[in-house]
Amino acid sequence: MADDLWAEFRVKPTAAPESASAPSPAPAEDQWAAFRAKPEAAPAPERASGPAPAPAPPAPAAGSEAAAVGRGLLNGVPVVGPYLLGGVNRAAAAVRALQNGTTFPEELKNVEAFGEATAKENPWSSTGGELVGGVLGTAPLVAAAPAAFGAGVASLPVRMLASGASGATLGAADSAVRSDGDAGAAIAGAGWGAALGAAGPAVGAGVGKAVGAFTSRGRSNGVVQEALEGISEKDLESAQFLIQQARNLPGGGVALTLDEALNAVTGGQATRASQLARVVSNSGGEGGRIMNEVYAARPASVENVGKSAFDRVAPPNLKPTELGFDVQDAARAGISQTPEGQALSAARAAQAERITPEQAGQAIQTDLGGVRALREAARDSRANVDYRLAREAPETVGIERMVAVERPGEPIITRPEGAPRFSDAAPRPMDPPPVVEASAAAGPESLARFVARHGGLRLDGDVVATDLHRFNIPGMGNVAREGGKGIDNFWRERLIEAGYFRPDADGGAARDITNELLRKLQNEQRGVPSFPVDDARQAAAARGRQGQVTDEFRAAQSQAESSLDEALSRAGVPPESLSPEIRSRTVGALMRGEHVDPLEAYERTVGAMVEPPAPYVKSTTVTEEIPDVRFGQVDPRPALAAVAEQGRTAKGDVRGSLGSFGRDLRAPDGEIDLSVAGNLKARERQDMRIKRAQEFGDGTKVRDLTITRNALDEQLKRVPEVAVADANYARNSVPLAPFERPNAPLNRITARENAPGREPGPFRTPAEQVPEAITGPTALREALANGSAATREAAERRLSTQILDAVTDAKGDVSAETLRKAMRENADVLDQMPALRDRLSHLVVAREGMARVEASPLGRIAQRPDVKSAISVLFPSDPLANSQEEIRSAVQALARNNPHAARDMVRIYMETVFNEATQETKGIAKQYGGAGFASAIRGNGQQRHNLEAAIRALPEGDTLWTGLDRMLTTLEATGYRPQKGSDTAFNQAIQARLKEGKGTVGQAINDVVSGAVAGATVGGPSGALGGALVGGRRGGSKVLQERRVLKDSEAIARILTDPRALSMIRSLSRQEPGSRSAEVLTSKLIQIGGRGLSSASQSSASPTH
Predict the structure, then answer these.
(1) DSSP string, 588-612
(2) H-assigned helices in 898-998
(3) What count of other Cβ atoms lies within 10 Å of the Cβ of residue 788?
(4) CA nearest to 873, candidates 887, 853, 889
(5) 172-191 burial by CB neighbour count: b if 16+ within 10 A, else e?
(6) Are strands 421-422 and 609-610 parallel, antiparallel or unpaired?
(7) How far is residue 870 from each of residues 810, 947, 964, measured CA to CA in Å?
């Protein structure tokens, strides 16, 4: 219906481009705006009294085209038009009178003069407004009674008769009103109305031809009909919506032509429309200019629309390379927010806190050291009581012995003949062998001389068995003497300090040097002295000189004795009968060269003898041993026997250790020690020797010392109190076994540098070495079994730290495979720490679960801080099918953690593709850059889905996608812009028809113009004006034929580019041929095409500024 058609036209108006449309008529309430702005001055009448009013401003000579159209709209309404225009004139006059202080009649006269001048100066606008007013005024009547106006479904004669009657009535009434009731004018108006009304239905048939020219309903073969062949109403509606949507895009919009929109909505099926647009754009003239202006503005419009769309996504990022780090951080945060990431975070948070070796060692040492100290204190407190009772045990052991007693013996008579005496004339005895000794400043002091000078050895133990008490050093005394100093408590450290013995391997002086010392002293007694170690070379040289002198002395002595024995034998005196004193003096004289003849020397010695003194008597004391019994607490003789037995075959330092143990079993006076206290200490010292031998790994020594120790222990346990004390001590030592076992890890890490009578010293093992000492399963088991929760916690934390450090790379990522391998390698240890094993197992499972996440787009983005890499992950050129959900999840995670970074990355991607697609070629902007961008950004179907998923995942993504989708749809439509070339025959046919003005299109336009004029100018002056227009058309047909090509091209160009034309075409396609609505809509379509022609004519007639 007509009212519905106009409602649709009013709901969706679109502004035409400046090049393709003239200003639209102003509404009725605004038509006097120009007039109010420029009132004309008019002379004001004089008043009877009062001051003279100010002169009224003159009314303008003529109004603008808008004012002409507005007045024409009001005046063109049938019957009531003059009244409406008169009411408006009176209202304007009243307003001007109030504003200017003039009288109403004066202002009314000015307003009416203004209207007449406006109509005269703007005849086309005024006439067009009257046409529109006539249509608008008649449309409600036609809608109310269509049959009365020939718009029904009856036959053409019937409709012509009804239309003539209604036209006569309406024409008479309108003429009567306009002529103030003139009967002649009313009769003339009725005649015109009857004639034009009767012709209306016939003209409607022509309108049907026009409709067929613009749609597929017509049977003619016109250009437009062929161009729109197969285009449905739905396609036209979609095209109209697309054009409006393109023009309303942010950034100024994009102007789409009708052919581009139709191809876009039909998938390229409107090929003939494209060919028509191509011919028009390439035909020159005003039509070509209009089309080319639209195309020329296209690149800038695409640029503005694209930048506006990108700005809505995110503002420009001036540091795009730094964006990669933000995107990577957001991706990592997104990974951690996934169920797998949260599980991994929880598993890592559940791991034991990291700890250093020193921190762990301090905790373990403090705990285990305290445990050891408590257990030792408990054992010692009990042992102090038990062994005190053992030391107080009664003496129940008796040892038989021989006690030496003295009695007077026979006197000793000493006679002089036993020792010959000599006078001073006798030769002196033979000199001792000369000794080559170095002076104090020239050489070292021998070992025997050093010992004798510093007090000598005490005569006890093994010293007694030697002959050192007879070894006298002149001026120094005997090497061994009564009241001398002991080897263990004095000489061991003194001689090592003096350099006669090398110190122990650890720099100490704890080893037994008894056997070595006695051996060196005996060698020196035999003539081979020992010197300090550093003076060995000088002593060796001295020994060499001594040997030479001694050899020379012995040779001289042997020669003298041989000559003496030979001479005595010849003289008949047996050589063996000579007293040693006589022989010594005789040989000495021969060796010193006092006599050459041995007999002379012998006679001199014998002749110098003197008489012996009187004998003397000395009383004596006889010592005898008698049996006796000695009582004590324990009998250590089996232990001494064991020492003797093992000493028979012992070698090296084992013999010295056995000797030391034997001495420990004796009292200071040499007697066997029968006390419990003394033998307990002897056993204790033997235990220490065994412990040291075990530490050094000397199994032979351990065996021999253990045999003697067991022999003593067996005797001690015969004392009940000692047996009880040992049993309690052993029972209380069981918890301390891991701490006291030689080379045991707990022993090493808890041993202290204790000083007697002082507080416990520091631990011998550094704290940082403690965790390494208990890394083995056995050591760890003992540590956990004996330590408290602090030891377990420190050990678990340290092992956890070691494993996690080994399986964590430089980026802080844990390798599940490496962690599993580490757990397998430490399975024995982890079995003792089930809590740690479970935590690590959970971490392995959680880390393996991250493999899927890391393989996802979000995981690959998190691997590198590179924005290009991230874009290639989200928008690959060959995406996997159905991957849009993964893209959506990835972008959602990025936007959730850093919305700005997510927006920036999407903008950079789109803008990069846009810049590449729209770049200039040889300084000329790409006409198809927008379409290329849309094709590149959307790509195939999967790329399209991925892009939509990424955009919708952004904040306000649905809104962003709606706008972006509209822009891309518009840019895709620009790709249907026709190009030059091809379809030559069709192009030539179109140009021929436009040039000749014949055929369906030309005839349809003629009929449409005639029908529009006839239908719109109903009655009165309007009918006269219509007749004038028709006559003018026929009179200028020759001129129009010559310019038909250019003008028709211009009209088609304006129809293709003016968005209002499509609305008219849609409305025409829904009307019945010959209907009143078809007439009205066809006239409007003609106005769209003709407005440009009139404006072009006026512009050509006006001077150029």
Answers:
(1) HHHHHTS-SSHHHHHHHHHHTEEPP
(2) 899-917, 929-938, 941-952, 957-973, 984-996
(3) 12
(4) 887
(5) bbbbbbbbeeeeebbebbbb
(6) antiparallel
(7) 22, 14, 21
Number of residues written out for the chain:
1105
| Of 887, 812, 831, 821, residue with least CA distance to 344 | 812
Distance, CA of 1105 to CA of 1092 (rounded, Å): 20
Over the range 897-923, which residues count as b (16 or more CB within 10 Å of their CB) and which as e? bbeebbbbbbbbbbbebbeebbeeeee
Strand partners, 413: 617
Listed in sequence order, the residues at least 6 apart from 217 whose beta carbon sits closer than 8 Å to its beta carbon are: 211, 1069, 1073
- Rounded to whole angstroms, how far apart are CA atoms 386 and 676? 12
Residues 6+ apart with CB under 8 A from 457: 451, 463, 468, 479, 480, 481, 484, 485, 487, 491, 521
Q: In the prediction, which pLDDT does 673 show? A: 93
Query: In this structure, how many other beta carbons lie within 10 angstroms of the beta carbon of residue 80?
Result: 14
- Residues of the chain scoring pLDDT < 70: 1-66, 69, 73, 124-125, 128-156, 158-160, 162-164, 177, 179-180, 189, 192-227, 413-419, 435-443, 534-545, 612-617, 755-757, 920-926, 979-1048, 1061-1105
Residue type, 584: S
621, β-bridge pairs: 408
Closest C-alpha to 614, from 416, 412, 421: 416
Helix 984-996 with 999-1016: angle, nearest 10 deg? 40
Q: What is the DSSP string of 380-410?
A: HHHHHHHHHHHHT----EEEEEEEEEEEEEE
Task: Please give the Cα distance from 876 to 870 (Å, whole number).
Answer: 10
Three-state DSSP state, 617: strand
- The pLDDT score that the predictor gives to residue 75 is 73
Whole-angstrom distance between the N-terminal and C-terminal Cα of the chain?
Answer: 48
Residues 6+ apart with CB under 8 A from 613: 416, 421
Distance CA 361, CA 366 (A): 8
**Is 557 strand, coil or helix?**
helix
**How far, rounded to the nearest angstrom, does the alpha carbon of residue 178 sit from its chain's CA centroid?**
89
Distances (CA, A) of 788 to 217, 220, 775, 792, 795: 101, 107, 17, 7, 11
**Cα(659)–Cα(66) distance, integer angstroms:** 142
Do residues 102 and 96 touch, judged by C-beta distance below 8 A? yes
Q: Are the C-beta atoms of 674 and 630 separated by less than 8 Å?
A: yes
Cα angle at 1016 between 1015 and 1018, to 5 degrees? 85
Take residue 312 and report the two structure tokens written for it. Answer: 């809505």
DSSP H or E segment with residue 620: strand 616-632
Do 579 and 420 touch, CB atoms closer than 8 A? yes
Q: Are 182 and 40 in contact (CB under 8 A)?
A: no
**DSSP assignment, residue 672?**
B
Tell me the H-state helices in 179-232. 183-214, 223-227
d(CA 744, CA 691): 13
Give residue 618's pLDDT: 75
Strand ranges (E), 775-903: none
Pairing, β 457-458 against β 480-481: parallel
What DSSP element (H or E) covers 632? strand 616-632
Neighbouring CB atoms inside 10 A of 370's CB total: 14
Whole-prediction pTM: 0.49
**Phi (first) and psi of residue 532, to 5 degrees:** -55, 150
The 3-state DSSP class for residue 1075 equals: coil
Provide the phi-psi class of 55: left if phi over 0, else alpha when psi is between -120 and 50, else beta. beta
User: DSSP class of residue 488?
Assistant: I
At 3, list the tokens.
Answer: 């009212």
Distance from C-alpha of 875 to C-alpha of 857, rounded to nearest angstrom: 10
Distance CA 95, CA 36 (A): 9
Alpha-carbon distances of 573 from 432, 566, 588, 1097, rounded to whole Å: 26, 10, 19, 188
